[in-house]
Structures are given as C-alpha cells and as structure tokens.
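protien #1 (seq + structre)
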Amino acid sequence: MHKPRAGRAGAGSTRGTRTGAGVAAFLGAAALLATAVPAAHAAPQAQEPATDVVPGTGTATPALVDGLHESADAKAAPADAARSHLAAKESRYRIADPGRDLTPVQTLKQGADETVRLQQKHRGVEVLGGQYVVRMEKKDGKRVVTGTSGKYFTGLTTGTRATVAEDLAVRRAVSSVAARIGGATLGKKDVQPSEGAKTKAAAALSGKAGGLVVVPKGAGILTYRVTVRGTDTATGRPVLQDVYVDAHAGFPVLQYSLIKTMTAPKPAGEAAKPAAAPKAPAATTNPGTSGTGVKYSGEQVPLDIYFDETAKQYSLVDYARMATTSKNTLHTWDARAVDVNDASGRWPAGLKEFTNAAPDYSGDATAAGAVDAHWAAGQVYDYYKKVHGRDSLDGRGMTINSLVGVTYAGGPFVNAFWDGQKMVYGAGDEQYKTLSADLDVVGHEMTHGVVENTANLVYAGQSGALNEALADYFGNAIDVTASGAKMDDPDAGLIGEDLCRTTKPRECAFRDLNDGRTTAKDYLGVTFSTDNGGVHLNSTIFSGALWDIRQDLDPKDPFLADRLVYKALSTYMTPLDGYTEARNAVVAAAKDLGLSARQQNVVKRSFNAHGIVPGWENAIGVDSDRLFGKLNIAGTGTAAGGGWWATSKSNDDGSEAYSVYAGRVDGRGTPKLISPNDGRYHVYPATDGKTVVWAAFGTTSLDILSRPIAGGPIKTLYTSYTNVQNLHVENGTVVFESFDPFGGRHVGFLKPGDREPTWVDGGKYELGTGLPSLKNGRIAYAKLYPGETDYKIGTETYDLATGKTQLAQQLGEPQAIGQTGITGKNVFWLVDENPADQGQMAVRRSTLEGTGTADVSAESGPGALIPFDLTASDDAVTVNTLLPDTQYRNETLPKLWQLSADGTRRERLSCNRGEQLYPSAAGGRQVVWLDGTTGWTDLVTRERPAGTC
C-alpha cells in the first residue's frame, strides 16, 4: 500500500441510465478515458404492471427487472431453474438459448434466497463482463423468480475464428506492456551490452494466452486475452497486466493491471497474483487456544491462536472461527524478510507463521504489525459472518492468509493489496506504521476478496472505482463500528488515519469518504495507465454516496445500510457496472429489502447529491476548442504540422478498428479520412501539412503507410515485424522508432524512394536511440553509447543532407533522457540526473550546433516538474507533466505547461481536469492534444496558455 508519490504517470424513471453508460463505463476508459460509449436504447417490452424493467443499453435484454413473483422449477438445480426461466420469458429477456449461451458461474444461497450468476458465451466464446443474474426464492417446496439484472449483449455478431496467430498476439501484448512501462525515457538501465543481457531483457516480461474473449463493443471484438507478467527492468517492480489483442488485426485494444491495491501505486509498481499458497492443514484434534496481543495502539486484545504440541510454541493460526463450517483457518505470516516482488505472483519460499513461546504477543509481534493483522482479520471475518451470514471471503470458508511486513528492494513499502488469494501488508516507513495497523485497511483488502467472489467488478475504469469504493465503504464501516466512532465525527470517514506516526490523522489518511466529491466537479477522466483508469482517483464519489446513506438511513441501525449495500453487491451488481448501474442496484436492493418510502428517498437523495444521476457524463465541460470528438481510441497519439492535425478515430461505440483522419488546426473544413477502412488498426499518425504517415497493424506485420492530404494513392513505405512508433514526416522523409526483439530501441528514417530504413545508430545492439523529433532536415534523438568505463547517454542530432551527427553539450551525468523536440533554432529534451527523486526531470535546451546548453526548467528546487512528453515550436516548448505530491488528485495528473524557450515564462496551457496527453506543437504557441476531461477522447486545441488555473 504505497501512499503514492506522484510518478509517470427509486423505482421506475429514477433508474433510467444514460445511453452507453454500462459496458462503456469500463471499456471506454481504454480510450483516453471514454467513460461512455453510445448505443441505441432497446425499447422496453410490455410487462406485468407489478414488474419494474430498466432497459439495457445497446442490447434488447433489460439491465434490471424486479418486482417479479413468477414460478420456477423447484426440483431443478438453481442454475437450471434460472436458465429455464429466461428461456420461458424470451419475449422479455431476448436471450435465444440460455442453456447454450449462459454458463453457471456461482449460486449464492442465503436463507430462502438464491442468486444465480450466469456467464454469457457468444458462439462458445466468453464475453468480457457479460454476466446475467437471476434472483429466486425457494421455500415450502416452491421456487419463484423475484428479479434479474446484469449485462447480456444481444447485438454481438462477430465471428469467432481468429486470423492472427496466437504467438503473434502474445508478442504484441508483451511489446505493448513494455512500451507502456518504459517508453517515456531512454536510460542507462536500458543498456543491453551482451548476449546474456539480451536474453535476460527478453525474459523480463512474458505473456501467456488465456484463450479467446469477445470484448462487447458494438458487434463485438474477438480478442486473445494475454496475461503479461514479469519485472519492470527500470524499477525492479513486478508487472501483471491483462492485454486484449484483436484476433483479426493484432492490435492491443484493451490493457490494464490486475492487482487491487489500497492506494494507487507508482507506475509499474503493480503486484501480481500469487501462484499457490500452502494448503490448509489437515483437521486437528487441537483446534486452538486463546491468547492475547498488544496492538500498535497499545490496546490489549484477545487472539485465537494455536499451540503446537510438538514444537511447544504458539502460532498466529486461528482454527476456532471456522471450526463449525470448514476445515480452513486464519493465518498470519511473517514476511518481513520478503520483497514485494516475491510476494506478488507467488508464495514466498520459507514463509512461516508468527510464533511465540507464550500465548501473549507483544514486542516484536506488535512492532511487525502481526497482532493487528491477526486480530483485524478475525474482526472482518466476524463482521461478514454475523451481519451478512457470509463464511469467509468466498462465502465457502476459504483460508484467510495475511502476509505482514513486506518491503520493497529492502526499503519501505507503504501499500497493501489483495492478490486473489491473500492479503499483503507493507512494513511502512518513517511516516506510516505497518499497513496492518488500521482495521479499515484490513477490512478494505479483505473486502476486495468479497467483491471478487460476488460481482467481481473489473478492476479498471468506473467498475474498478466501484470496486475500490465498496472496499473502502465496508472497511470503514467495520472500523467505525469497532471503535464506536460517531458518523458525524469529522474524521469518521478517513481511511488509514490510524497509520500516522508523526502527523495528524487527516494529514496522512489515504482517503476521506466524507470529502463531498461529485461527478460534476471531481470526476477525472484518465487512461488505464494512470491508476487503472482512476480506480482510486474516482472512488470516493461513489463511496461518499454510500457514506451519506449510512449516516442518514437509520442512525439507530447502521447495519441496515451495510445490509443494503451488501445485497446490492452480492445479488444485483455485475462485472462491468458503472456508477449509474450501481446506483440502480442499490435503489432496487432497498425496495427488495422492504425499506420505507422515506428510506428509499434517502438512498436516492444521497446519490443525487454526489451527481450520480442518469446522464451525468454529459455535464462535464472543457475550456479548450474541440477539433474532433468522441474518438474512442487508446494510446495512439496525435500530430500537428503545416497547419494540419492528424489523429486516429474509431466509431461511436468503439468497436471498429481505428482509422486515421486529418484536419485543419484552425477548425475550418471537415476532417478527411486518410487511411483505408480495411480492418487493420491505423495508428501513430504524423503530418507536415502535405502528407500523413502512420503505422498499420495487420495479421502478420506492421506497415508504415503514407498518403498526401490532398488525396492520392496510399503507399507502403516499410514493413516491420517488430513494433514501431513515434513517427514524424517532413518533405517526404519519415522518421520513426523501432523496438528490437531484445528490448533495444533504434531510430531510423526513410527518404523518398528508400526501400529499407537507415538507422542513425547503425542498428547496433550495443547502442540505443529513441524518442526522435524532426525539423528542417535534422533529426534529434536520445542516444545510449559506451564511454570509457560505463555507458553514457546524451542527445544527438543527425543532418539528413550530410549524415553528420552532433552530440549536444552535456551537463552533469544524465541517467535518462526523455522526449526530444527540435525547432529551427534549438534542440529541447528532458533529462534525469537524479533517479532517486520523485521523478522530476529538467527541460534542457541547446543550439543546433550543440552549444549554449542550459536548463529551461530545473530538475530540482521550487517548481520542478515531472515531465514525460515534450513538443516544441520556435516560440515555445510545451511539456506534458505532473506535479510532485503525496496524493493522486487532479493537479498531479498529466497536464500541459508551456514555457518560453529561455525559461522566463511558464504557464498552464489548459485548465481542463483529468488527463491531457500527446501534445503536438502546431506553430506559434498553439498546441493540439488528446483530452479525457469529458469522459470521451477528444482532440482539442488552444492557441495560447490558459493562465492561472
């Protein structure tokens, strides 16, 4: 649980939902964050008067049906009875063959209630997030259906035969992850000086195909789901991401991290799912004993522990809690000698439970956080058992494992996570205690396990923010109840406030559920590479509404709100739900539980107060001029030159392969379609106002294509079998960056008529070049090269007319170089001389001859930036940057700042919230970029800075 230091980066009509909210709330975030993908509302079918039906979006199947009391087969298994009901009511559900197209996932039984979850298959292939829920009641030998909810996509028509080879899909998935975690800089850690190092670099990330999956956009996109795992060679941190690669074109259309952390980690700091934990011990005749422990706070608490007769010692193993329901146990493991990398994706070797010669734990066990972790895990288990009748996290008595005290590279690890099987708690640092020392943190992580075993909300975009919101809500509810805090206490809504060593609770708490955030003021549109699409950034908008419900619903019975939210989670929500669907689920659950009209109004009013209302996405505006809207693209960049812009665009529901368009930067005229609509993904465009060049991802290779803006034939300039990006064009010469199979990077160019590229570094493995820019016949780029005793890195220019290179004058000893920019007067680049800081880099400038090197913006001191992209004109240099901070919030997201060439002026280019990415100088002080503020990916521009925001 690393507290993030900023780094790279009622019934009826009130339940209506905005067209396209649903699946788009998650999937659209893969565009820059398209939080909504439009689709036509299906007309609701006529129903019995008592039945309340909420139509689905882009589907004929309703998103929610309640108020039912329809007979079902009492003798059949619950899943069979559920599917028979859906088949018998085809006119309502429009599911042609539930027996064929819906497979059982889970049946949850609570008293007479039965909740059946069914996974959609399209022609036998799993549909991502396609899950439908049937709620039934069985008693006195009879069974009735009481309602349904979820997402079944009736508009899917895509074929299910892949035309891209699986191994190619794996390679492109790995390449995509590598580019995401390491593409912003070229640094000394990227050196591959030997064959052994090349092999190691190639093995740093590996991919494994998990079969075909239909991504439910429009008619559906057939993809390979590839899980990429390994290590980020630059940071040493573990990587675990799911990448969905189009099985007909080979382009990664969706990509996100899988780990569920307490706070947003630094980029590439994700932990991975474990391999296998020890099996639960066999049943014992000594089910345990009682002991005590001293918590971090000094409070003495009772502990359920185990006495090993053979070893004559006590261990933090709890057999008592689950003794009546299962053979499983609650363990607390000593992981103080374990690096987070070894606790992520595997069970660390040699791990042992905390032990003691006496049944009373204090001292070392207190300082390590073991007492808090063991006690708190028991409290969370008891809460779910007593309040919700749930036996452990999976509802079936699963073993609860807590690993306490992990570190990162021998230093502090200030984070905690649930990895699908266990909780892992960092050791803390000088500001934070060990992360297990706050009950709401433990409750948060364990609730991730509950969510995973109920609605299984996908951990990205809005559904991921809901996942975090629910974990926060229940973690806080458990903590507030245990401490006896009043809901009107100003600090009652804080998460992690008990971890503070030296500061006041509010100063170091991770989040505040009572922060009053709303969709209209505070929702932040970000990419999946930032906080998995805002899962932490946007969570308190929804958890704040739940907090208000808990405070206002029934102060004498706070568990009423808890039971309401749990019922919505366990019996209504499905994996791709967004804010609007989740609101509908809670409102429907309130009716189902028999809440009074007044109480139901409290629920609705709470959501309204936080802006969680139908159509909320439409209320977000920007202060820039939109050139081209609703692009529905992901990570494909944009470009400007010669008075024109170029970018990629999908269709309105994001289901089509991307096409390249071009238009005028002054907004006049109609954008022109440049690329063919041939099923390939056309991406990374560049233009000089005369020609557009771009990369086209195909079934076997990647082509660099070009076409005149005025019209004419499309030419294939070069065919590559590795990834290329960072394209530029000027007077027919094309510059690009290629990635070799060993992770090396090389800048090449194609002059008119060239069949093969010329590499500025000769394509040698012992060298590396990247991050090019092009102007007036000169290329600027970052270069790794061997020095007398070590590799060095610098910025170099290449004269296309003469082949002469010029190394820019170096200041200090750069460890990494970021994006370059070249103009008619200067070369600009980003430089990192102190990798131990929070990611700050200098913006550096030299003349074209490599003289007069100076910093436009310093790497350290007041106002130092954390830039990761750069574009320049003769009048200004614009950087994509973050600001150093201890929390993820709007101002620490990627913003655009413009500096004069001499550094005397620095202004914010736009006051838009959310992320602004891929800036491209259009001349003078005008810049175009991709903006995620509205929840769509829009191409926007400003001709001058916005001033003070």
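ok now protien #2
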Amino acid sequence: ADAPHPGDDPAAPAVEDVRARLEAWLGDTVLTPEADLSAPLLDLGVDSLDLIRTARRVEAAFGVRVQLRELAVPAMTTARLAELVAERAARRRTADTAPPGAGHGPVALTPPQEQAWEEQSGDRGHWNQALLFTTRSGLDGELFAEAVRRLVAGHASLRLTVVAPPARRPRQQVAAVALDGPPGAALGPVLDTVDISELADADLPAAITLRCAVEQRALDPGAGPVVRFVRFDAGPTRPGRLLIVVHQLAFDMVSWSVLLEDLEELYTALEAGRTDARCAEGTPYPEWARALTEHARTPEAEAEAEWWTDVVRTPATVPLDHTADDPRAVNTARTAATHREEFPPELTARLDAAARAHRAHPGDLVLHALGEALAGWLDEPAVRVDVLRHGREEAVGDSHLARTTGWFTTTVPVRLDLAPGTAAERLARTVGHLAALPGGGVGFGALSRHGRPRISAALRAAPPSDVSFDFEGDDADALPLRTVLPDVAPEPIGDITAPHWTRPHLIEVIATTDDDVLRAEWWYSTALHDGATVRHLAARHRAALTALLDAVGHGTAAPGAAGAADS
C-alpha cells in the first residue's frame, strides 16, 4: 500500500460505507425497486438535479467536494463514486477560501440577472421568492439570531446589492458582515422578530398574513437588503413562524434546500454548544459571475457561437388575440392568468417508462409534445422554445455549486425539429438536440451578454421566444424540513411580485409530477390572449403527448436517442 500522504485523514470512511450511503440516498429519491445498482448513474433515471443533491450530501457527510460534471460522466457508478469520495476524504485538507462574511468588490451581473434588470421597469424591489415555515416551540431567539448571522455570512448572494450608474452596465457587489458583537446589530434589517405571544390562537393567522404581505415590499436590490428573515414568536409553548423573503436576483429554487439545510445545522450545532459551526459554501456567487464573464471570451465558449446562432433563427413568435403596440409592456403580473391541465395518473408511469426506453428525461417528452402542439398551431416545421434549466452545470472553471445560493436558473433557446418522420424519429431529434446542448446551455447567456460584440450582437438580434417551458418534476428539490422548521405554514404570504412586474414570456408552461400525477400550468396574459386560445393550445399539447406515448411508449429507442437533458 502507498505510504500516507501529509494531511491524510486516518478517520476517513471506508469505500463500503460510502457506497452504502450513496445507494441509500439514491434509493430514497430516484431508483425503482428493480434497479440494478451496479449500472451507471445516468442509466438509473438520475438527472442532474439528483446529482446536485448527491454532491451536496457527499460534502455534508464526508467533507469532500465532487463536481457535477464528474458525476455526469457516462461511466460513473455508485461503486466508482464511492471510491472517489473515499479517496478524497482520506486526503482531505482545509481549502484556502475567503473568510465567512467577507465582502466582494463589484463584478458583472450574471446573464439572467442582467436580462431581468433590463426587462423590469420602475420599482425593482418587489420581485421575490418567499416561504413561510412553522418553527418548533421554545426556539431560543439569541441562538436563532446567531444562526442567521452565520448563514448570511456564509452565503454571499444573501448580501449582494446592484450598483447601476447612469449609462453604464449594472454590477453587483457583496457587503461584509461582522462576525463578532450582537448578531442583531450585525444583521440590521435582515432579521426581525415579531412578538405574537399575547395573541389568541384564533387571531394568529390574520396577524401573520398581514405582516407577510407587508414584507413582500421590504427588499431593495439597490441599497439592500435582498433577504429578510421575520420570526414570529408565539411564546414558549406554541409553534411560531418564520418568513424568509429573498429577492429573485439573489436566489433560485435549488437554493432553498441549501439555505434550509444550513440553517438547521447551524442552529442545532449552536444549541449543542458548538461555537465553531459555519456554512460550507461552494464557489461564492460573485466568483461564479466573474468566472462566467471571463468564460464568454474563451475559445471554448466562442466555439459554441455557431450552434446558438443557428438555434435563434428558428421561428418563435405566436399569434395574438389582442393587438398591442408593445406586447411585452402589457404582459405584466396584473394581466396574468392561468389554465391548469391534469393528466390521468397512469400517464405518469407511461411517461417514465417511455423516457427510460428512449434514454431521455420525462421532461424531454413533455417538451417534445409542446413542440408538436406549437408546430401545428404555427404551421412551422420547427419551433423555438425557451427552456428553463437549473444552470449549475459546473462547466465553467473549477466551480463547486451544489452548496452555493444564488440565481443560477438560466433560460436556454431550444430548437424543436418537427419535420416529417415517425413519432420515434421526431422524438429522437428532440432528445439528441437536448443532449448536445453545449455546456448544458450556460454558454448561451454568457456569449449573448458578455461575449465579443460581434457574437453578442448576433445572438441578441433575435427576439426571445414567446413561449417558455419548465419541467419541475416531482417537486424537483424537496425542502429539507426537520426539527427547527418542521413544516410549511398554512398562512398566505402575499403577492411575491408587484402588479407592474414584466413577465419574460407571453406563454409559460410549467409541468410538475407531484403525487405521481402530471400537471401542466399555462400562464398567459389576458391583454394578449383569450382563455379559449390557451385552452385550445393546452388540448393540442395533451393530445400530442398522449399520441406520443401511444406511439413510442413500448417501442425501442430510435437511433440517436442517447443521453438525457433535464430542465
């Protein structure tokens, strides 16, 4: 055996122990009972969100980092991953990183941040993500404040502000936070406590609901804060509430799991007397923004330009029922409406089976059916749809993003080729296109926002698609609720967007498979489309997906249908 290396950890876990943990995690979330656990991860129905969760659990349990691109190689199995984790755990060293709470100088906005900043007009403060949780009774207010301070210190995106001088591109910077002294003084407006201990049980919901609605307008991306923690103290014997509101520029849906896991671990560690507790953040968000900006002018990124230029030439405009001088100006939260479709429960099982047969993600098939519906409506052989992806591809630099909070969600233009062919052949073209997306799609935003002027201008000359698609699956990143925050609270949290907020697409399709039932939400603007038009389009999509599963659900995958892309 090799001699020990300096810094080797004699208490590192055995490969067998690591493998058992990995198989237990995967078995809890994605694997079918008959799955062959020795098969490559990508053959087990694991998508990249599952891999992100696995990377996060590996770092939390074993103190080592594994990149998403390492997990996504075709030959990666649980056995090989266990060997990799055990090897790194044995040679674990303390990384040279910036201290918690450190500030970061101004850097460019990431592509989704900059696009959103340009799209919104007027007050940009009221555009949030927000959740309200129950808290366990008897929560210690001082310990909780200290846990929040360490949480905010450990995640740079929770401290960002946007600097936007006239006639210059906006930039983001991160304020420092003090790690000594009273936590309330260090946090300032980030943390507030509302005493509701004197209220009767029957009066609690109204008081909480009113305060939540007010808090939706309390954020300011220009001056700060971009996050608010509001703890409702109901006394020592009753569960309280915790409202967390984060500005969209600083957060995405995957970030919730990171935030909640860290808050739980920090509070329970402090409660147990562990004064050294801190967050184990990955690559801080401003460092990712800087890396993405630099990546845009590398030969590797510029080699993608031809691909994206070809994609954005694809038709992407839908007809309107109501004319408007500027459709996007009237496409606001005030005019938004929703049509919901629910599919039969047995369809989800058929969808999963067909996806496995064609080495695809279930969302790929739902997206393909959307393309079929749009192509028929527009009478086009190919259509372009903006697809939302989680954006944590780790394809840029030496990035580790599984435990980083921030807005990584990226919108990627996708060409759906519906030229004549069998159902399997048309599906294979879609699956192949998604699998071939360069770098998982993050390069498109980087090139269009930070690329050389010739490339950037070519990509931004084409208007965005009028239609977007987001497959969120079965609650794509389930909230890790444990003892400190045991559940989501029942009270309403108010409107997370202002009425004047500009919607980025005219029609947004959001698909979920909660409770193993496929549902599709169709968001549209009543100023531009009638409900009957959207219902008709949704019916086309329903028929297209059903016909697709009838045609390919039990067949053999067509040539070229390899690899899977997630939403």
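The mean pLDDT is 89.
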